Amino acid sequence: MRKIFQSDFLIITFITVISFILFFFRLGNTSLTNWDEAWFGSVAQDMAKSGNLLAGNWNGQIFFYEPPVLVWLLALTIKIFGESEFWLRSISALSGVSTVIGCYVLAKKIAKSKLAGILASLVILSDIEILFRSRQINVEILLTVLLLWSIIFVVKAYEEKRLRWTILSAICLGLAFLTKRASPLLALPAIGYLLLKPKPALQNLAIFFITFITITFPWYLLSYLKWGDQFINEFFIGYTFNKIKSVNASIGTSPVFYL
Description:
mainly alpha; two-stranded antiparallel sheet; 11 helices; 2 strands; globular
């Protein structure tokens, strides 16, 4: 047993097997069960049929509620495997598995201890929200894994001074901004701090920024060119800024709830 926990490969295999059991067991045994699952499933179904990758439609209206990465993945799944609850949810389940592995990798790096990594991965596996979200269609768990690995790659870039890790971090962050609207902003202080510490800082920032813009900018630009003010009013103002200051039974009246 001691030898098992001295090998990174065996530890990650152990964590992965447990995660697969928890996230994939009877994953497709129920129909789509809540608003998000039905909503994203319907939009992905429309996109798979229409082939329009800029945005899907829901109830005859353009779907500007979230950026398109999750819907792209769901539409691709429908194209390959058909309209199966199991395969549609598998995107979240795989994101959950990758999150658990990422927790091991990051905790081990920070604490310089494999035991810390194992404990971190088991703690995240015991979190009911991770278990719940990893077994349903939603943007949150996909966003989580993209932000987590963006931070892991920028830590590796800081430690090893290699640009490939900076580029991978920027790709993950760019995809995160194409997954959920404003939430990825919360990761910027940590990523920015690690980008600015090593020298030359300007070179790191420039490469990171160019890669990030290359990933994110085309969808935003093409969406604006196609829909103009409708895109600005619905995506940025309606679903982003107005949601932050909205009032409902869940968030109450606090203007700093999301912060």
